[in-house]
């Protein structure tokens, strides 16, 4: 049987379920998943390998209007991930209607020479009758068949996988089969910590929170010491993240540590520090320190 492989980019407006889909396919938590839009910052390569082929997923930040340098960087990342790939998956939100962000993305990709698979996610949130209605509307908008899925409940994911492989060329196995991401561990640790900040502080600390893992070392007893700085733009945000009597920072640390331990399969000591760096999102040198090149 022929071995197929290729690079696939997943695009869509913020909070449409791109990271949930990629994580479910790969079976590990790689991208930061948060109930808030705009949380994936770097295009992460997630790798799905099976007997007959390999898919390398490029997960892009959600596409939206740029407000500052960080937003601009995220938009550039989203569009640059369209170069050098074999297939585009455009995810639409089945629980709502076609919006201006969908139109903006569609205008960018409709003349692309790449193959495009259109997917309608979040069908678990709507009735069958509504599903057919929305699928028809989305199909009219894009002029192609739209595959309905629920990334959260794994519904129709097999159909989507078969469709992806039908488009991919014959090719080599680019990565070892046990490898699920090519991002360095520090980046994944930082993303897991950042996810907990988003989950636990919700609207209180906006997107001006970044995490930099400064040190990772294996200790003699084979557990890991990880030191990370959480950077915020305002003193008030620092107070929120630390919380009353340090309660919030302990909670963030506890939940992030649990996930890192699951990933590493070993005990972890997580040392978190909160620092104020005014307007880091608008300063190039600070952006570079945060890993946004």
Automatic annotation (TrEMBL):
Domain named Era-type G: residues: 4-170
GO terms (BP aspect): ribosomal small subunit assembly
UniProt-annotated stretches for the region G3: 59-62
Location of the region described as G2 in the Swiss-Prot/TrEMBL record: 38-42
Residues of the KH type-2 domain: 201-278
A GO molecular-function descriptor: ribosomal small subunit binding
Location(s) in or outside the cell: Cytoplasm; Cell membrane
Keyword rRNA-binding: yes
GO cellular component, one term: cytosol
Keyword Cell membrane attributed: yes
Assigned keywords, A-Z: Cell membrane, Cytoplasm, GTP-binding, Membrane, Nucleotide-binding, Ribosome biogenesis, RNA-binding, rRNA-binding
Membrane topology type: Peripheral membrane protein
InterPro entries: G_ERA_dom, GTP-bd, GTPase_Era-like, KH_dom-like_a/b, KH_dom_type_2, KH_sf_prok-type, P-loop_NTPase, Small_GTP-bd
Region (G4): 121-124
Region (G5): 149-151
Principal location: cytoplasm
Any Pfam family matching the protein: MMR_HSR1
Binding site for GTP: 12-19, 59-63, 121-124
Residues covered by region (G1): 12-19
Quaternary structure and interacting proteins, as annotated: Monomer.
PANTHER family named among the record's database cross-references: GTPASE ERA, GTPASE ERA, MITOCHONDRIAL
Its job: An essential GTPase that binds both GDP and GTP, with rapid nucleotide exchange. Plays a role in 16S rRNA processing and 30S ribosomal subunit biogenesis and possibly also in cell cycle regulation and energy metabolism.
Record family assignment: Belongs to the TRAFAC class TrmE-Era-EngA-EngB-Septin-like GTPase superfamily. Era GTPase family.
NCBIfam families: era, PRK00089.1, small_GTP
Protein name stated in the entry: GTPase Era
